[in-house]
Design brief:
Length: about 400
């Protein structure tokens, strides 16, 4: 199936159903003086739900999404939704960008124009990109998921390689964040002859289910990142344990309650965004956040994205088991395309752990932003992407 133009249009009945469900929310009791320490506070969420119900304009945000060319295709039996924004600069470098969880292509709305048309923002034509921004299988409109296995990042990377081939791009850059950083790394391995470079954000200090980071020997910002990672590992993995072990049980709550879906996502925007932000909407635009949550709700992909997490973690555990048995221990890993990493204020990434061999070509650390830099600090992300790929075109 070749790509077909796609326009987002959520039925009016779905909008009215959302309004009704929000109005009829059965709220739990509020525990006094615990703040965010046990999850999203009731009074905070009630105010956000009231805004979602009475002030947020889905149709306006839907129209803003539809200003960008979107398409549907089918790869290996799986529907794939993607934005495809061609730069007005004919020599622009193609760049495929992959989101993570709990996100979607909505995350990148603020960087599309400056990346694809830098001259309109005071930049150089030579920094322009043709952008391909897919929805991961099981996220947004890349549904329904046909068969198990689409949580395997190598399978997704193979699909992305096929997508870029169909679009006629013989050489291209790759960017990924969170889960998307794993897809980006896999794509660089399976299509190394076509990938000009790989830029990563949303990486972390170590594997969530592994041992804590050893703080001895770390100093300054790295010590703070190590401490932050260890707190996350000790106190912040409930969502991952649930999605990685019992996604179907969780699915009923996410698929039946928009407030449940909102709380499940907004907690991560509280925990993972710039530490200086008191509330999620102090770090990211509130309407952009609600557009992302609304997309999960309208497409019912809280459940399927949880299943994708389950499959991804199963694949990871299998890989670790093979490594522990010595499989492939003596294989020579060929050098891949150049890599770049951007680390923002809330991140836990530590260079000595991620890059012990000092093979990463570009490393940048910023004092602002967090896990969602395209939403939080789009100017920093755009500039970092331009600098990294400038010598790789």
């Amino acid at each position: 199936m070749e790509e077909q133009p796609f326009t987002i249009h959520i039925p009016q009945a779905a909008l009215e159903d959302l309004q009704d469900r929000l109005r009829r929310t059965r709220w739990p009791a509020e525990w006094a003086a615990v703040g965010w320490s046990r999850g999203v506070p009731v009074d905070y969420l009630q105010a956000l739900v009231e805004y979602w119900r009475t002030s947020y304009d889905w149709r306006g945000n839907e129209a803003a999404l539809n200003q960008w060319p979107q398409f549907m295709t089918e790869i290996d039996g799986q529907p794939i939704h993607f934005l495809h924004v061609r730069s007005p600069e004919p020599d622009a470098l193609p760049l495929i960008i992959t989101h993570g969880w709990p996100s979607s292509p909505v995350e990148f709305l603020k960087v599309i124009a400056p990346l694809s048309n830098p001259r309109a923002y005071g930049g150089a034509a030579s920094d322009a990109f043709h952008l391909v921004i897919p929805s991961l299988p099981g996220y947004g409109f890349s549904t329904p998921v046909h068969g198990v296995g689409w949580g395997n990042l190598f399978r997704v990377a193979q699909a992305w390689a096929e997508l870029m081939r169909r679009l006629g791009y013989q050489r291209y850059g790759v960017q990924g964040t969170d889960v998307g950083s794993g897809v980006a790394g896999a794509l660089a391995m399976i299509a190394a002859d076509r990938v000009a470079g790989v830029h990563l954000t949303g990486t972390i200090a170590a594997m969530p289910f592994g041992p804590p980071v050893v703080l001895e020997g770390l100093t300054g910002a790295d010590a703070a990142r190590g401490e932050r990672f260890n707190r996350y590992q000790a106190e912040g993995l409930g969502y991952l344990h649930m999605q990685a072990t019992r996604p179907q049980t969780l699915a009923y709550a996410l698929n039946d309650s928009p407030v449940g879906q909102l709380a499940w996502i907004v907690e991560k925007f509280q925990e993972w965004t710039d530490p200086s932000a008191e509330r999620p909407e102090d770090a990211v635009d509130r309407d952009q956040l609600l557009t992302n949550v609304s997309l999960y709700w309208f497409t019912g992909t809280g459940a399927s994205s949880a299943h994708a997490t389950y499959e991804g973690m199963q694949a990871y555990r299998e890989m670790v088991a093979r490594q522990s048995q010595g499989a492939g221990a003596h294989q020579q890993v060929p050098p891949g395309p150049p890599r770049g990493v951007a680390v923002f204020a809330a991140d836990t990434t530590i260079r000595s752990l991620l890059d012990p061999g000092a093979t990463i070509a570009h490393w940048a650390e910023y004092e602002r932003g967090g896990h969602f830099p395209a939403m939080e600090v789009p100017d920093l992300l755009v500039g970092d992407l331009q600098r990294f790929f400038r010598g790789l075109r």
